[in-house]
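note to self — DONT lose this again. spent like an hour looking for the file last time. sequence + predicted structure for the chain T wanted, 209 res
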Amino acid sequence: MSESADEAASGNGAWPASVCVYCGSSSGDREEYASAARALGALLARRRIRLVFGGGSVGLMGVVADAVLEGGGEVTGVIPHRLRTAELAHDGVTEMIAVDSMHARKQRMVELSDAFIALPGGIGTMDELFETWTWLQLGIHDKPVGLLNVGNYYDPLIAFLRQMADRGFIRPAHLDSLQIERDAARLVERLGAFRPSASSARPGAGLSP
């Protein structure tokens, strides 16, 4: 899809208005992680989708935020007061919201976002991803949650999730509600098209190879 078509689709509501990106405050051991973060940020800016993120200027967090800003997009950071120094809060974002706790941070990011994408990251990224996905399962929100499986980073996690379903700990409809892609543009398209009931009704709709 061309850039002009991207913009037209965004104006017609085909894309989420805001996307929360969960990702590492480190860059990992492969350049492809940062490259994917930059590409996702550029895509969000091009489609006029506001980025909501954890507010840091370092690691993949800083990379994706910088890419959105460089593309003329809008960025909202949400960071706990006590982490503003530890995570080197990004001072160039459109809006920075300081909160009192990690829980308040996650809650605020969910409130501000229409969809969620997890890039590669560590324990904090997993915490954010699983809490947001759990809230979708419980009906606390009805917003789409996705994994951008950069360089097969999430392959072991995907295999484990399938095992959890095979052993009866995750219902197939809940497993299918997690949208997984290797391509950022395709993932954003799926997030924009997501409807909870439709996802539950289509076996295999969530977990892509």
